[in-house]
Amino acid sequence: SRAVLERVKYLMDQKGAICLSGNHEYMFLTWLDNPEKSYDHYRRNGGDTTINSLLGRPLNAPVDGVADAERVKTETADLVDFIRQMPFLLETERYIFVHAGLDLDLKDWRETSDYQKVWIRAPFHEGSNQTGKTIVFGHTPTFYLLHEAPGTNQLWLTEDGKIGMDGGAVYGGVLHGVLFGHNGIIEQYAIKNDGLVAED
C-alpha cells in the first residue's frame, strides 16, 4: 500500500535503512514503462490494489491500466523515483541479501540478471552456493521449501549457506524478522497475521 511505501521511504531517508527491490516492484515498474503490454500481468498479481492505494481510491475501484499509469507517474512521482532507485542486491563481507536468489550456474554469480534476482526459484534453491558467503533471500515461502503447512516459524537453512526467510504471511503464514551478526543469526522473530508471535 501507499502507506507501506511511504514508511519504508521514511526509514531509508531518515534512518539509513536499505530496501531491496523484489518481483512486485519489478512488475510495477514494468507496468509503468509499458502499460499496454504489462498491465494484465500486473493486475493478475495484485496490481489493482496498489494502483488504487497510490491514487487514494477505494481499493476495489475500477482501474484503467493505461490512463492510471500516467496518473501514478505524475501524482506519485516521488514514490516512483524511490522504487526505481531500489537496489536488487546488498553484499557485505559475510552476506549476500537478495529478493529471490542468484543464478549459481554462472561462472560469476554477480552477472545474475535483475530479473532472476527477483523471480528465480528452483534453480537457485537446488544450486550449490559457491559464493563463499551466506545468501539471505525471500520470495519463496519457507513452508514450501520445508514441505510444511503455512504457519511454520522456521527459516529454511542449508548446509551450503542459504537462508530463506519469506514466511508466506500473505498466504496465512508468518512475517519473519532476523537480526544477523558477523557470525550468523543473533535473533529471529516470526509474527502471524493476527499479530501474535509464532511458536512451534
Structure commentary:
The chain has 200 residues and is of the alpha/beta class. It has nine helices and seven strands, in the order ααααααββααβαββββ. The chain has helices at 2-15, 23-33, 35-44, 47-54, 67-75, 77-84, 114-119, 122-126, 142-146, and strands at 89-91, 95-98, 134-141, 156-157, 162-166, 174-181, 184-192. The strands form two sheets. Strands 1-2-3-5-4 form a five-stranded mixed β-sheet. α2 runs antiparallel to α3 (35-44). The protein is globular and about 50 Å long. The relative contact order is 0.10. The model has no long low-confidence stretch (mean pLDDT 95).
Summarize the structure.
The protein is built from 9 helices and 7 strands. The protein has 200 residues and is of the alpha/beta class.
Write the layout of secondary structure elements.
Blueprint: H1 2-15, H2 23-33, H3 35-44, H4 47-54, H5 67-75, H6 77-84, E1 89-91, E2 95-98, H7 114-119, H8 122-126, E3 134-141, H9 142-146, E4 156-157, E5 162-166, E6 174-181, E7 184-192
Helix pairs in contact: 2-3
